């Protein structure tokens, strides 16, 4: 039983929240009343949960020495010695194979995107995460792949605006996470994440966060008023009002990240009620605009 519990911990199910980007196409294509679309989207979501968990397990094996020096990550199963390296690698392989097998039950283009995600994340884990700025770009690309894959799963074209919103938001969250790590760990950050922290100085990270936050808000604003959104997605001109909770959520996350209080979006959801309320308000407003007006 203890081994099973550690395997579940290694899969990091709390981080499956990041895979909700798969549902973006389903919602914004107004396919929420289509049972077959829901079935495909749920299988896609499950496949990405398995794939991301496989990557987490593989990453924990490679980072076990650095994680052991981290005040929080040292409790992870591999770093703490609760699970051996061989067992973690075997678990990672099982999860990856399960993800690929499940993807075959969706659609062929989806399978290709899931495979591309796995290859990209393995490259990130082995090499790319050691290169400052590129590391965040790769993570953001993983979220864009999720959004694209969600569209392929339900058989709809994903708007380039939706992809840009996903990209800019992911960049902001990535740079915010690096800033929170720098603030929380100080000089010890170099011992817990092997990359050139000289690039990620306070000034440079705050600048990257500010620029990516602005891009996130502006891109979303343009998405809400674009002719394609108004005519083909929403069917009315009211989507722009959902910008308000988005601005609040972005600025709220920014303010918490620069103090080192939160380590990422999952941690923010757990610890910041105001941020969660902003997300709920955005979801409610978007639902009304999309389906009630």
Q: What features would you describe in this structure?
A:
This protein has 293 residues and is mostly helical. The protein starts with a helix and ends with a helix. The protein has 2 domains: 1-158, Tetracycline Repressor, domain 2 (Orthogonal Bundle); 159-293. The chain has helices spanning 2-11, 24-28, 35-62, 64-68, 77-80, 85-104, 108-126, 134-154, 160-185, 189-192, 202-225, 227-234, 243-257, 265-271, 273-291.
Break the fold down into its secondary structure elements and pairings.
Layout: H1 2-11, H2 24-28, H3 35-62, H4 64-68, H5 77-80, H6 85-104, H7 108-126, H8 134-154, H9 160-185, H10 189-192, H11 202-225, H12 227-234, H13 243-257, H14 265-271, H15 273-291
Helix pairs in contact: 3-6, 3-7, 3-8, 6-7, 7-8, 8-9, 9-11, 9-13, 11-13, 13-15
Mean pLDDT: 88
N-to-C order of helices and strands: HHHHHHHHHHHHHHH
Question: What is the CATH top level name of the largest domain?
Answer: Mainly Alpha
Strand content: under 5%
CATH topological fold name of the largest domain: Tetracycline Repressor, domain 2
Q: If helices are DSSP runs of H or I spanning 4 or more residues, what is the number of helices? A: 15
Question: What is the number of domains?
Answer: 2
Q: Mind telling me the C-alpha Rg?
A: 19 Å
Q: Give the uncertain stretches in residue-range form.
A: none
Assigned CATH architecture of the largest domain: Orthogonal Bundle
Question: Which percent range fits the helix content?
Answer: over 70%
The tally of beta strands, per DSSP, is 0
**Class by SSE composition:** mainly alpha
**Which overall shape is indicated by the principal axes computed on the Cα atoms?**
globular
- Considering the protein shown, what is the CATH homologous superfamily of the largest domain? UbiA prenyltransferase
């Amino acid at each position: 039983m203890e081994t099973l519990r550690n395997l579940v911990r290694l899969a990091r199910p709390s981080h499956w929240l990041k895979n909700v980007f798969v549902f973006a196409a389903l919602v914004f294509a107004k396919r929420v009343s289509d049972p077959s679309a829901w079935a495909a989207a749920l299988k896609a979501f499950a496949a990405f949960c398995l794939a991301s968990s496989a990557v987490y397990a593989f990453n924990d094996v490679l980072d076990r020495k650095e994680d052991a020096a981290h005040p929080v990550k040292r409790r992870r199963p591999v770093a703490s010695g609760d699970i051996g390296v061989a067992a973690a690698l075997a678990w990672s392989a099982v999860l990856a194979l399960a993800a690929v097998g499940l993807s075959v039950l969706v659609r062929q283009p989806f399978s290709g995107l899931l495979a591309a995600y796995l290859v990209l994340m393995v490259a990130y884990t082995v090499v790319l995460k050691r290169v400052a700025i590129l590391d965040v770009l790769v993570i953001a690309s993983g979220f864009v792949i999720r959004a694209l894959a969600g569209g392929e799963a339900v058989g709809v074209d994903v708007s380039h605006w939706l992809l840009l919103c996903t990209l800019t938001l992911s960049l902001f969250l990535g740079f915010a996470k690096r800033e929170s790590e720098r603030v929380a760990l100080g000089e010890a950050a170099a011992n817990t994440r092997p990359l050139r922290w000289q690039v990620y100085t306070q000034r440079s990270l705050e600048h990257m966060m500010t620029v990516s936050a602005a891009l996130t808000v502006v891109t979303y604003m343009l998405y809400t008023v674009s002719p394609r959104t108004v005519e083909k997605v929403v069917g009315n001109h009211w989507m722009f009002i959902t910008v308000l909770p988005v601005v609040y959520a972005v600025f709220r996350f920014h303010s918490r990240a620069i103090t080192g209080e939160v380590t990422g979006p999952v941690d923010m959801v757990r610890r910041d009620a105001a941020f969660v309320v902003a997300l709920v308000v955005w979801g409610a407003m978007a639902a009304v605009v999309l389906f009630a007006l």
